[in-house]
Amino acid sequence: MPVFKPFRGITPYGEYIKSFPTRPLSNYTHEEIAKKAEREFSYVRMVEPYLSGEPQNLEQNLGRVRANYEELLRNHNLHQEEESGYYLYCQVLPDGSVFRGLLGLVSVEDYNSGKIKKHEETLTHRKEKLSKYLEGVNLQAEPVLLTYSSNAELEALMSEEERKNPVLEYADSKGTKHRVWKIQDEETLKKYEQILAKVDAFYIADGHHRMGSTALYSERRKDKNPNHIGNEPYNFVYSFIVSDQSIKINDFNKVVKDLNGLTVEQFLHQLEDKFIIENKGENPYYPEQKHFISLYLDGQFYKLTLKEECCCEECLGIIDHYLLDKYILSPILGIDDLKTTKRVDYLRGSSCVEGITKLKEKVDNEGYRVAFGVHPVSFSDLVEIADKNLKMPPKCTYIEPKLVTALVMYDMK
């Protein structure tokens, strides 16, 4: 079984419960971050030296973030628990969707040994950037989202806990309700540990870069520590584990800056070798099933259907992102490494035509040339890929729940 360890969480205290937590910082523009930092003392303001500081002063900026955090602790705006525990976290969206699971720590060693399974490649520069952040701040504020095969005993135990009063409760600006219960009773912790011992593996649902960057940071700390024994705080990753019945996988789509020197006609002609092309006109086309791809180019949408003889016998051939890379991005557009290219950007979908409409806006207004939309990856395909130790290209899945940042945090010092 993979380790899932209780920890001493850090939470906002008093009035800070309402103002401190935030959506993931990647959801904000630079202008929104600047306004948020000016308006309220939130997590955004705490990390503002890093967000707005000059890159050449990175070490100094990260030191200021750590100093801000420690000042908030001293002033009792943040509170760290005396005893370790798990945290039951429940998120209720305005549409009534409910996501529930446990906050705790997983082991970098389990990640490296394959007990925590990954399904996506990561972008090297992002891992390096996040690793340097951890080196300077030593604080994890956003958990990695992990999933496991549904377990009725664990669900029953969480339901029992949920009947108690939460220790934290608030609604964010989008109307999503967040509730947290603290689990520190020894008997209850043992019950959770006994049930979790039956879990064979965790699967990374969201947070491959956070997991990879923490593993990279941990390895560097280990190399510098002659007395390393494996239980140091830097060996663990703050995580949220949820049942496979409690996640939703949406599409993650791509926009490309150019056609690799081809005209529109040449590009479409080359696509005909592997795909049946159907012009959908100006109506946004959402790919309704696997092996259908939505293409947006020059104000027109196209439905690309993979020809039967081109269906790939490789295991990764079950993933449309792999086929997009294999048949279009690499051979036609000359994009050989999605981990390092700067010609491709990614756009989160919503499992409906709305996400495809956003692709059109991105191409029409932001200097991109062509967009590709794919059908969402299924959970069974994700597990098959991870179990066979294969990797999908970067940014293939957009998985919910999307967790709030800095509601509960983990100090790595």
Rg computed from alpha carbons, rounded to a whole number of angstroms: 22 Å
> How much strand?
15-25%
Question: What is the total tally of β strands?
Answer: 19
The overall pLDDT average reads 92
Largest beta sheet: strand ordering: 5-10-7-11-4-3-9-8
Most strands sheet: 8 strands, mixed
Helicity level: 25-40%
Structural class: alpha+beta
Global geometry: globular
Count helical runs: 14
Low-confidence stretches: none
Taking the alpha carbons of the first and last residues, their distance comes to 26 Å
Folded structure, characterized:
Helix content is 34%, strand content 24%. The protein is built from 14 helices and 19 strands. The radius of gyration is 22 Å and the shape is globular.
Summarize it:
It contains 14 helices and 19 strands. With 413 residues, the chain is of the alpha+beta class. Strands 5-10-7-11-4-3-9-8 form an 8-stranded mixed sheet. Strands 12, 13, 14, 15, 16, 17 and 18 form a 7-stranded antiparallel sheet that branches. A two-stranded antiparallel ribbon has the order 1-2.
Question: How does the SSE layout of this entry go?
Answer:
Layout: E1 10-12, H1 16-19, H2 30-39, H3 43-46, H4 48-52, H5 58-74, E2 78-80, E3 86-92, E4 98-107, H6 108-113, E5 116-117, H7 124-137, E6 139-140, E7 144-148, H8 152-162, E8 168-171, E9 177-183, H9 186-196, E10 202-206, H10 208-224, E11 236-243, E12 248-256, H11 264-271, E13 275-281, E14 292-297, E15 300-306, H12 320-329, E16 344-348, H13 353-365, E17 370-374, H14 379-387, E18 397-400, E19 410-411
Parallel strand pairs: 5-10, 7-11
Antiparallel strand pairs: 1-2, 3-4, 3-9, 4-11, 6-19, 7-10, 8-9, 12-16, 12-17, 12-18, 13-15, 14-15, 14-17
